[in-house]
Amino acid sequence: MSGQDITIKSNDCGAFSGYLALPEGGSGPGVVVIQEIFGVNAVMRGITDEWAAAGYVALCPDLFWRQEPDIQITDQSEAEWARAFELFGGFDLDKGVDDLNATIEHLRTLDGCSGKVGSVGFCLGGRLAFLTATRTKIDAALGYYGVMLEEHTDEVLKAPLMLHIATEDGFVPKENQAKVHAALDGNDMATLHDYEGNDHAFARQGGEHYDQAAADLAKSRSVEFFSKHLS
User: Which residues lie below 8 Å from residue 44, measured CB to CB, with a gap of 6+?
Assistant: First the structure.
């Protein structure tokens, strides 16, 4: 599976890039893949390719473009981690959601996209995936180990949401996990899955906390979720 970089027009000024991967048949529902704090790097491009291979028109936008376009770093050195946290600290959340809204609507117009669009995000992207379900017209949203979700539990879900939660997440204290559960466990729009004993980024291949069994389970649940809501 090979993809290409495309240009997406922002809603306010300028434009930004996105990595687009098409399914073998050339058409299907859309999926917006939302980056971690390392930019649209090889890991995110690989995940985008995987969703394309599963039959989706998959698009991963560069959400750090307002700070520095085309960031592609890894989790393999202290210097890269420092840069990633610097970018995270400088990220404008509201502008990021607006850029995702532009991405969602751009994806709907692409040849081959059925018009239905879901989002799947990781870490920072998990937080943003949650916000696509409350602030955009996304059709379904998936969040992997989203950070700072407890800050948004008063927002109303407008689309089905699935969250994959690492119980030993070093970036999400258990009390914050409990707040998210308390807010969403009784909500028919939300499905929460806990991954006991797993740490943050358990689905990032090559990462320190990668757990293939947990990653495979989360992926199977995600595939079923999108199949239900985007078909």
Answer: 19, 33, 35, 36, 38, 60, 122
170 CB-contact burial (10 Å; exposed 0-12 / middle 13-18 / buried 19+): exposed
Domain edges within the chain: 4-230
Examine the residue annotation and report whether 70 is marked as an active-site residue of this protein.
no
**How far, in Å, CA of 160 to CA of 221, rounded?**
14
Q: pLDDT band at residue 1, thresholds of 50, 70 and 90?
A: low
Q: In the chain, pLDDT over 70 holds for what percent of residues?
A: 99
Among candidate residues 62, 99, 139, 169, the one labeled active-site is: 169
Catalytic (active site) residue 200: yes
Q: At CA 91, angle to CA 85 and CA 95, rounded to 5? A: 160
Mean pLDDT, residues 61-82 taken together: 95
CA-CA-CA-CA torsion sign (12, 71, 46, 158): negative
Which tokens in the block code for residue 60?
Answer: 């991963």
Contact in structure between 72 and 40 (CB atoms under 8 Å): yes
Q: Which of 106, 164, 200, 229 is catalytic?
A: 200
Fold (topology level) of 4-230: Rossmann fold (3.40.50)
What is the SS3 assignment for 194? strand
Share of the chain above pLDDT 90, in %: 98
Q: What tens digit of pLDDT does each residue of 31-46 get?
A: 999 999 999 999 999 9
